[in-house]
Design goal:
239 residues; 8 strands; alpha/beta; 8-stranded parallel β-barrel; single chain; globular; binds pyridoxine-5'-phosphate
């Protein structure tokens, strides 16, 4: 049965819109855990547009489940991760002008720099995952440079407009799950997943954990965090 990691970045987005103290992503995380989330993810971006350093430190002290820190492979973020010691780190590419993470890491191209960051984080006892597009070469490169896990970028699948295009994307994801498993990697998935499109990915099997944020926080506005999380837990587990 797949697990659900809840990303609470966009609770912080609403808070930052006024620069005050509410809504607090740390409180949202506690509600998500009560509703059955298996872990909590936050992305500490270089520009601090949503999650703040204070959130990461507080989550580390208060979470009952696991803390997954999404971050760019920079010296600043590596230093923070080694201070906070999240259970896992997911390395993502980051561009200042993007609205959200736009694609996976080009692991093969940045092999040497990533290898060094992975080694530093693993030395600190942190599990390291690489966010990659569903391409076999990226999965193989992730293994080569010592990652524990990959998170398969599901954004292109989620944006596919025709059934045929969705099937093509699902096939790529499935091949990467198989290749990742063959190489002994833990396989997670995320980005763009919602209450309508997650089941087809869960039905492929082999995914350890889904990391989902925007759709859960959006639904929570209307039905509350607990119900929004519970509904998603059922979909990822029940497929
Ligand atoms: N996984 C990664 C690596 C991401 O960058 C994001 C977005 O922050 C997510 C999962 C969650 O995506 P969404 O908010 O679209 O569910």
């Amino acid at each position: 049965m797949a697990k659900l990691g809840v990303n609470v970045d966009h609770v912080a987005t609403v808070r930052q819109a006024r620069g005050g103290s509410e809504p607090d992503p740390v409180t949202a995380a506690a509600f998500a855990e009560l509703a059955g989330a298996d872990s909590i993810t936050v992305h500490l971006r270089e520009d601090r547009r949503h999650i703040q350093d204070r959130d990461v430190h507080l989550l580390r002290r208060t979470l009952q489940t696991r803390l997954n820190l999404e971050m760019a492979a920079t010296e600043e973020m590596t230093r923070i991760a080694l201070e906070v010691l999240p259970d896992s780190v997911c390395l993502v590419p980051e561009r200042r002008e993007e609205l959200t993470t736009e694609g996976g890491l080009d692991v093969a191209r940045h092999e040497e720099a990533l290898r060094k960051t992975i080694a530093q984080l693993r030395e600190g006892g942190i599990q390291v995952s690489l966010f990659v597009d569903p391409e076999l070469s990226q999965v193989q490169a992730s293994r080569r440079i010592g990652a524990d896990a990959i998170e398969i970028h599901t954004g292109t699948y989620c944006e596919a407009r025709s059934a045929a295009a969705q099937r093509t994307e699902l096939k790529k994801i499935e091949e990467c799950i198989r290749e990742g498993a063959r190489l002994g990697l833990i396989i997670n998935a995320g980005h763009g997943l919602n209450y309508l499109n997650v089941q087809a990915v869960a039905a492929l099997g082999g995914i350890e954990e889904f990391n989902i944020g925007h759709s859960i926080v959006s639904r929570a506005l209307f039905v509350g965090m607990e119900r929004a999380v519970r509904d998603m837990v059922m979909l990822v587990r029940g497929a």
